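hey so u asked for the seq, here:
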Amino acid sequence: MHMGTMSLGLRFRAIPFLISALAITTALSLGQAPGVTDDSILIGSCSALDGPARFPGKQTLLGATTHPHSVNGEGGIFGRKVQLLAFESIPIPRPAL
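ran it, structure tokens below
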């Protein structure tokens, strides 16, 4: 069976989300986890959103927001809505301090 590059690329992009879902499910089964409430699951992202590396950082964020929208449209994870918080990753030490 031939797998096109698009389907292979989608599979590789799905791996981090599957790992996240597994980690969240495990955390929920062990008790209350940080960022998890009765009605939401909070996920953080740290990417370059400004400066010379902003293009790949913004593309990563765009891809990362697509999955939670899809999951939330289907009722969330165990009824909890997934929220993504994006933070700037400043690669220059001086402004980061």
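The mean pLDDT is 74. Helices lie at 5-30, 54-73, 93-96.
lmk if thats what u needed
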